[in-house]
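Q: Entry one of two.
A:
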Amino acid sequence: MAQFPSALVQEGWRGRTLIRWRGNLTSIFRQVAVPTRQRCHLVTRWRHVSSACGFLLAVSFFGTARVRALDTAGSKRNKLVGWARKKHGHHARRDRQLGFACRAEAVRSTSKLQASDRPRWIAITGFVVPTYALVATSMMLTAIDKAFIGRVSSLQLASLGPSTAVFDCTSYLLTFLNTATLAFLASNADAAERGKIRSHALFFTVGSGMIQGLLLFIGAFPAVRCLGASGDLVQHSAVYLRLRSMGAPVDRIASVSTQFWLAEKNSVIPMLATIVAAGFNIVGDFVLCPSYGVVGAAVATVIASAVSAVFLIVCLEHGSLWPSPFQWPSPSDLAPFVRFAGPVFFALLLKVILFALMCAGATGLGIMPAAAHQILVSVFFICGIAFGQPLSWAAQSFLPRSTGQERRRIAKALIAVSSVFVMLSGVLAGLMGCYCLHWFSADSAVLAHAQGAQQTVTIFVMLYVAFLTMEGFAIALHRLKACLAVSAVLAASGGLTILLLRLSGLLSLTSLWASQATLLAVACIALGLIVLRR
């Protein structure tokens, strides 16, 4: 609200009362007709009127006082006085209303200012914490299967290694569409355009899910053999993979619907969806796993994914975020997704290849190390990806629309929050390694192998959280080539290291995770220097 340094003067002039306000740029004159005989020569001066609200209140006060003075006149002037009262009363009410409106606007402006001055780390933490619960619960779907299967048979637990690696890695590979969807929605404020983006994202993700399911169902046996499954492991692993592939399209719907909510900076509803899915999965595993083994675990997981997808769709419809009517994409609409998500796709592909090589290396060590590796992978998913992915999404949600000083403040807040979450991920991984490994298996030999590599897994988890945070910065700042280059070097060096360890006879679970942690530390430093440069 502009300030009005001025003097308010009432003076008599030629039978009329003038209220004159002199400011730096403007002069306002209001005149009130009164009889010549009752001309008032009172001059009142107000100095240092600090705002328009004070000016309007002053005008209202004078007008009311003047009308009351005229009310004492004789009956001959009653008609004129009544007209003056009506006129001045109207102006007084109007000025009071304007004054109240000015005060209300000032309060709203102050509230907005206080909200913008609120520390950025509070908003980021409020986004990350529910998102962690979302990702952790999602990661627990496979971990729950492993926990129930580990109580039934160590052989079937080991067989989950190749099958879950194939399904989870291909699903993770398809999240490049999720990344593009979140980036486009976060950087676009037009409602119609956002609805179009949601329609196209659903079409692309459901189509990719159908292709994924078809390829995995057809190539289940060759895929698990490529990851080291042999003998009795092949049958159990392929059956689990085929059943999970049937629910791939539904799983993709739930995944992209989550991005719709994250683009609105709402991570609570996706968290609730995954909690509901985890509840259904636990009940299904408890009922089916003792009798049907890996078949029951796969069926329970597919049902849980379907329930999560339905829950998210219903919430999107109630929130007017579900695209209606659905807009079918043209071939030209695929170009922006491909142009942006192409480097992200190859970066994810390289990470998937690296994790597949780690799984193959652990499976080649035998049944007990392979089963222990699956337990450690569950710890990594719950503590590493579940902490790192929300930080990556936070960078992609908060950075795109910010510029200049505001972007630097958000970046500093993100770094501070990520530092805390890196430490928390290490603490949680250490606690799970000390107290929770027996949840996944009752076999003492399997637990011994897992406990031997637990410390290196903890270090790997912390470094991976930092790496995902830097990757989120790179995606938000559109430095995708740097992200792709670092991922390529990491995957190539990681695969070469595993091969050299195997040829030299030094490969074990501890050396496997330790070698990858060393390479990941170098990748974190390199990506951080590239992304955070001015």
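Q: Entry two of two.
A:
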Amino acid sequence: LRAALDGVDVGQAALQALHIHDPAALATTSLLVALQISGLLLEVVPLDDSACDARRAIWRSGRLAYTPPADQIHAYFGSYVALYFAWMGSFTNWLWAPALFGLACSVHMHVSGLTVDDHPYLPFHSLFVVLWSVVFVRCWDRRSAEKAWQWSVYGLSRVGQVRAGFRGTLRPSPATGLMERHAALYERVVANFFSAVVTAAMLAAAFFAMICSMNLQGYMEEHVTPLEKAFFIAPLAKLARPGAIFDPDQQLFFGALSFVPVLLHTLVIMVLNGWYRRVAEWLTERENHKMQRDHDNSLIAKRFIFEAFDCYISLFYVGFVQQDIRKLRSELVSLYTIDSARRVITETVVPLVAQRLAKRKSVRRCQQLKKTDEGELSEALDALAQPKYEQFDDFLEMVIEFGYITLFASAFPLASLLSIACNLIEVKSDLFKLAFVTQRPPAQRAATIGVWRHLLHVIVAMSIPTNIMLFAMSEQFAAWAPWLYREATPMDVLQGRLDSVIDEAAGSPDLVVKRGAARYVVLAACGLEHLVALVAVVLAVSIPSEPEHVAEEVYRTAWYKEQRAKQLRRRLSGNADLVASRALPQ
């Protein structure tokens, strides 16, 4: 019904015959958009065919399978939903390569007594993860093209109709001459600037929450650089001192209290993300995008920037401001572990409870409707009572997880292995929600995963400089270029270059760059970054964006269309010549 209404082009006379007199509704050519603007249509929810029970069949097929049944999902829900599950299956399979490499490094660290700061093979693990991410994203493009061709959506562009909520004054279209809604450019510029200001304020609040968490974890010191002194909060920092309640080395309750600051930080992030979700929707509505595609992309960009900032800012601060790889690993492990546990709970327990409560309400509603001879409405009312299916949060969590794995590869080698377990739970939970908890989403055709593909490319590009910078600030680099470093002195501590002469983890004097040698460290880091970037580009260019058999089918189809067009043009040209010859005088 949705597709039929959206595909019907109507004129003003037909809309007025339906008693639609709203000028904004009369300016559109889509019957669905006109009905939504006028308020005559509130919701279109596709119902399930109870005879075939396809949604439950998909759950039965996928609950014990290693990868989700993407083809079966496409047959019932369309390519837009199926592409997410195809990407999840591909991502989980590809994680085995860095997972095994990271597991080998972790086992070697445990056996040899080394750390992430002095393990000799971790730089190679980081390099492998960076190049792996390039190959994975490129191979996903191939897999996506293959699925798009298989599902007959290859080359499809999701242009869409004018957004129902678009506001503007009526004017004749310069292109078609028909009436259309138009909004002034300066109004959108002002709205975008307002969105940037509000988002910056929310990001400042998230940054303050991160600073509080870092003080509670004992990461902030009073006697260090002027930048860190500005973020030192004494009342909070003293709670992490030796013997205090949040002392990282305390053993009370098996050291569980040391995780409280990270847990509080995670809860604050969840609250801020919930607030900003509503704020982002309001801001995007104020921006008044004309096309639904532009509206969705703007909302995705806002929420991704905010939630990625929340998740990564503390890691960037520890890694690049404090330049402490061990603290970075501790922070990454804590954040990633707690976030994974949160995802498992929210993706399994919450949907199950919601499904049980919805089932009880459905039974009571059905019994009440049967008493009033309106039992045939129970299925429709049950569908309307269910929450809408949204892929945004599912995609966002996976892209953030991809960033944890690639941006800080050397800090947590076991991230890929842990992600495999979390992904298996995630995909089963998403199938469960799709089958039992949410409304059946309207079937939409899509050839790619959209803007998420571009965000993956951005993360891959960022992973090159971040991993190279972490390597340049590590003890591995100092071991490879010892002539650039010297042992630290008490004067270095007084000048705020580091907080201790002795490296407590290694039990040896700490190292600092020699006077005048910093330029060579920077030069080496830049050279390595350019070299790795060059290798990444060569890899990306060497891997075709689509499989050979798909390219051949595309070429064959294009050639066939061209030949048919030539035949049609010759036929039309022959008919025109025949008509012209008959028109000539004898």
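A: Comment on entry two: The radius of gyration is 29 Å. The mean pLDDT is 78.
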